[in-house]
Amino acid sequence: MKMKIVDRKNFSTKRDVESGTDEQRKAVLEILSRVKQEGDQAVLAFTEKFDRVHLASMQVTIDEVEQAQKEVSQEVRQALQEAAENIRTFHEKQKRQSWMQTSDTGTILGQLIRPLKRVGIYVPGGRAAYPSSVLMNAIPAQVAGVKEIVMVTPPDQQGKIDPGVLTAAAIAGVTEIYKVGGAQAIAALTYGTESIRAVDKIVGPGNIYVALAKREVFGFVDIDMVAGPSEIVVLADEQADPCYVAADLLSQAEHDPMASAVLVTPSPELAEQVQNEMTSQLAKLPRKEIAEASIRDYGAICVVADLEEGIQVVNELAPEHLEMLIAQPFDYLGRIENAGAIFLGEYSSEPVGDYFAGPNHVLPTNGTARFSSPLNLDDFIKKSSLISYSRTDLLRNGEKMMALAKSEGLTAHAKAIEVRLQKERGLSR
């Protein structure tokens, strides 16, 4: 099959991504309710139903983690350790400090920053294992100072977790691991069960049932985002290598049948070259069927008048991943307004960010890069405002506060200031 080529006029920047059917939402609500009421019994029953495995215990033991590390090749262990160091170094730069400021009148204002106490990370299973997701979710939490990092991930039909995932968990400082996935895992992390204590926040991507469950429990716990299928947009000019462009588009298309891969280019010649290269590379992919469905339903090559129009398209798409395969990418960087992660130049293929460079690969999808950010240290901290108001400032500004309170009809607010002013001024109440 060939990737479709369209002009700007016939290219839509609105992506219609399934947000869950009524049947799926109903199923998720039932799972959440049962786990809340029945605890472990419901979690184990749903695990047996959906993952086709009967578990005596959900918790992964230390022995299982140690055995998993022996099963992973030295090459993969070394790569995971180096990737972890890169991720840790990058996120260390995001650290914030508590602060206080004292005025010459004695008032002290400030902000107190504390890490969350207990965080749950969801690691997908199913079509593939994702050790990189463990690193990207757990390491920022660890750097932020979170003491309890709880990982949930679905087991296989033998009741086991992928050795690479367990190895990554050990490297990233995960403190507890449970063999549970799907909406039942989100429910357990939210409400707590006999085996799994409730957390303060849940992060990490999952399937539609996980996404719907996270949306439902927001408010009982915090969540990072409701992540959709993966996306890549490549902005390329006539100098781009069509082989590189095609390979990078397919790197996302192979994720999921609903993944989106889009090329935006002012070069009709490049468009045709990439179209042909995609067909050639696609035929050799082990995950060909998945990538074909993605390209057919959500892929396109958009030919624009020039790079300026191309940048307009990019900003409207607000993609999860943006590659800039153009002659002078830094000259145009300032014009990019919306993107989860930006990859500049031909050596910055999207998998560089997915696995190794250091920035987080948990990114906003489905256009939400217009208003949200990659997973970062701020997701794992909370801030408290500090106010120590001085007598001098209260006497100086109290009447203003009372005026504002009375303008809103909140007379008790005004009274709380008034009684203090009367006392400090030696007036009877």
UniProtKB/TrEMBL annotation:
NAD(+) binds at residues 122, 184, 207. Its EC number is 1.1.1.23. Keywords: Amino-acid biosynthesis, Coiled coil, Histidine biosynthesis, Metal-binding, NAD, Oxidoreductase, Zinc. Pfam families: Histidinol_dh. GO terms for molecular function: histidinol dehydrogenase activity. It is an enzyme of class 1 (oxidoreductase). It catalyses: L-histidinol + 2 NAD(+) + H2O = L-histidine + 2 NADH + 3 H(+). Pathway: Amino-acid biosynthesis; L-histidine biosynthesis; L-histidine from 5-phospho-alpha-D-ribose 1-diphosphate: step 9/9. Substrate binds at residues 230, 252, 255, 321, 354, 408, 413. The active site is at 320 (proton acceptor), 321 (proton acceptor). Zn(2+) binds at residues 252, 255, 354, 413. Its cofactor is Zn(2+). Binds 1 zinc ion per subunit. Residues 55-82 form a coiled coil. Catalyzes the sequential NAD-dependent oxidations of L-histidinol to L-histidinaldehyde and then to L-histidine. Belongs to the histidinol dehydrogenase family. This is Histidinol dehydrogenase. It comes from Ammoniphilus resinae.
